[in-house]
Design goal:
single chain, 616 residues, alpha+beta, Nucleotidyltransferase, domain 5, Alpha-Beta Plaits, 4 domains, 7-stranded mixed β-sheet, 5-stranded antiparallel β-sheet, 27 strands, elongated, mRNA splicing, Nucleotide-bd_a/b_plait_sf, RNaseH-like_sf, repeat, RNA binding
């Protein structure tokens, strides 16, 4: 509970698009700022104020013009949003005569005016909002507290509250926003008077910034508080996600960027909000823009979030135990690099938090370095200075630097899987469960994955997802080289990232990770293969026609043409055929065709694949 403020400032906004229950859902700009002061001590209303705001794109929808009665011509001389906010702050300060001990708080009709309009738009336009905009009273919630017998909050609006209190509605001569502000003032005066004597305390809060932090797989996550965002720029960070959802409260460590099988970001993220109300408001931002890209927003579950953000590794938990740190990922490090060299690479202008404890190297299951590391920085300034060193040299190698998240660290380093190698080709899931014995109860639901080769047959490998990294470690220690059907089986601890890498077609061996083959051949290989098919068919048909023609045409004496003509045609055909065969061999040596074993004739979907890597 907090002390009741001296004044309430009724705040109401309209936009150039949809207003009312869907305010802010169409991403249209703020058009009108209206307010009125309520003195809670003297129970008096101040004068109404109305400021038009000139949007960057002054196109108004027909609905907006009909509801607000604002036309494009009247906006030409209106101030910009930043100027209007400055004018608003000055007007409120003068009217309240704010001094030491004087306090005020906003009061709005629902959540949308503050959370879905003001905060998102000022964030996009890089306008810094004053501290007073980070707390407000939701009149609908306050009304429900004061009048428990009133309709449900989802059905409450100014008209419903006015009707419940039997108050007179304002004259229809007032404009849309002005009439709402006038009615809200009368409702507040009624609530703070006899017989209700309502006290405004404990306002709604808007988070100043996103707080990073670890998440445990054992943590309970509400299914109704998680969304999946899709279409993110690959370089986006958790702070960019928090900026996109500005105005809504994301739970601590609640932004988890998803990685693909190669450990790269796939343009998706799972976001956990503090409650269902904020999740529902986030869903209204479906297809809002982050830069030039629109972002799709869908419902997700707590299990989805824990798969990405949850972790059980003590090493990772200790690394992430320092709160509110900015994480940077390093890629391309020399395998023999030391912590001291990493610290020297960043230098004095971007000191690493905790010195050596702020650097975490990524290793393979056998403890060999991968060339990646995560580094902690205490503030945004240090992190930005560090990112300026992107592609600077460390030794003879250039180093790539990216912003990272706690969830990404968990995904890369959380070794809660084991790999079985050397299984009999006829081994079944039941055989694997018997082999693991007591550890079979620690396997996650649907956590056994058999690895197939390129012909779709068992490869002798399998991956098992365990409930914790500790149990995965014990299983690898106790089951390593146990026998199954007279064969000893090798058992290694690994991460979910490495498991996904292999299941997508890549290889994991002592030489490191080899990327999976292209799902579709690249444009060059596909075009070359199609050309080979066409030329082969064409040359074959031409050769048959030539042989038939030479076989029937005779010279003037009625004799067949000399045999050397047929021999020459055969030589030409043989040369073309040899040339085509050499191209086919070249194609077979490309990753597009060798790994997928695609047949050359009648290839389809040309040009849809990624660039291939030619074998040396």
């Amino acid at each position: 509970m907090t002390a009741s403020p001296d004044y309430l400032v009724i705040l109401f906004v309209t936009t150039a698009g949809t207003n009312g229950a869907r305010l802010g859902s169409d991403e249209r700009e703020l058009l009108q700022l209206l307010w009125k002061v309520v003195d809670l001590r003297t129970k008096k209303l101040g004068h109404p104020h109305d400021v038009l705001v000139r949007p960057d794109h002054p196109e108004l929808t027909a609905e907006c013009q009909e509801v607000t009665k604002v036309d494009v011509e009247s906006l030409a001389q209106a101030p910009s949003l930043e100027q209007a906010l400055r004018q608003f702050n000055q007007s409120v300060s003068n009217e309240l005569n704010i001094g030491v001990g004087t306090s005020f708080c906003f009061c709005t009709d629902g959540q949308l005016h503050i959370r879905q309009v003001l905060h998102p738009e000022t964030s996009k336009k890089n306008i810094l909002l004053p501290e007073c905009f980070y707390s407000f009273f939701d009149l609908r919630k306050e009304f429900k507290k004061c009048c428990p017998g009133s309709p449900d909050i989802s059905k409450l609006d100014v008209a419903a509250m006015t009707e419940y209190l039997n108050l007179d509605k304002n004259s229809s001569e007032l404009a849309y926003g002005a009439s709402r502000v006038e009615d809200m003032g009368n409702i507040i005066l009624t609530l703070i008077s006899e017989p209700y004597n309502h006290r405004f305390s404990d306002p709604e809060r808007v988070n100043y910034k996103f707080e990073s932090g670890p998440c445990s797989k054992m943590e309970l996550v509400d299914d109704n508080a998680v969304i999946r965002a899709r279409g993110l720029p690959w370089q986006s960070s958790d702070q960019d996600i928090a900026k996109f959802f500005k105005g809504l409260n994301i739970a601590k460590g609640g932004a988890a960027l998803c990685l693909n099988a190669q450990g790269r970001r796939n343009g998706e993220a799972l976001v956990r909000f503090v409650n269902e109300e904020h999740r529902d408001l986030a869903l209204q931002r479906h297809k809002h823009h982050m830069g030039n890209r629109y972002i799709e927003v869908y419902k997700a579950t707590g299990e989805d979030f824990l798969k990405i953000a949850g972790g059980t590794s003590n090493e990772v938990a200790q690394f992430l135990s320092k709160e509110n740190q900015v994480i940077v990922r390093m890629r391309g490090l020399p395998f023999n690099v030391t912590t001291e060299e990493v610290l020297a690479f960043f230098g004095q202008h971007c000191p690493v938090t905790g010195g050596k404890e702020g650097v975490l190297f990524v290793t393979y299951p056998d403890s060999r370095p991968t060339g990646d590391a995560f580094v902690l920085f205490a503030c945004e300034e240090y992190a930005q200075n560090a990112l300026k060193k992107h592609k600077d040299l460390l030794g003879r190698r250039y180093i790539e630097l990216f912003r990272s998240t706690a969830a990404e660290v968990q995904q890369v380093l959380n070794r809660d899987c084991i790999r079985l190698r050397g299984l009999p080709y006829a081994a079944t899931i039941e055989d694997i469960l018997d082999f693991l014995g007591e550890f079979s109860t620690d396997i996650r639901t649907h956590g056994v994955h058999m690895v197939l080769n390129h012909q779709g047959r068992p490869s002798g490998d399998a991956f098992i997802q365990m409930k914790s990294a500790d149990r995965a470690f014990l299983a690898a220690q106790k089951c390593h080289k146990k026998t199954m059907k007279d064969r000893y089986i090798e058992v290694f601890q690994c991460s979910a990232e490495e498991m996904n890498f292999v299941l997508m077609g890549g290889t994991l061996n002592r030489n490191g990770l080899s990327p999976p083959p292209c799902k579709l051949p690249c444009k060059f290989c596909m075009g070359l293969a199609n050309t080979v098919c066409c030329v082969r068919v064409g040359v074959g048909a031409a050769f048959l026609i030539l042989i038939l023609f030479l076989g029937k045409v005779s010279d003037g004496g009625g004799k067949i043409r000399p045999l050397h003509l047929k021999s020459a045609a055969a030589c030409v055909h043989f040369s073309l055929w040899l040339w085509i065969t050499m191209i086919e061999e070249l194609l077979r040596n490309s990753s597009c065709f060798s790994s997928n074993r695609l047949a050359f004739p009648f290839l389809k979907q040309a040009g849809q694949g990624e660039p291939c890597q030619w074998k040396k």
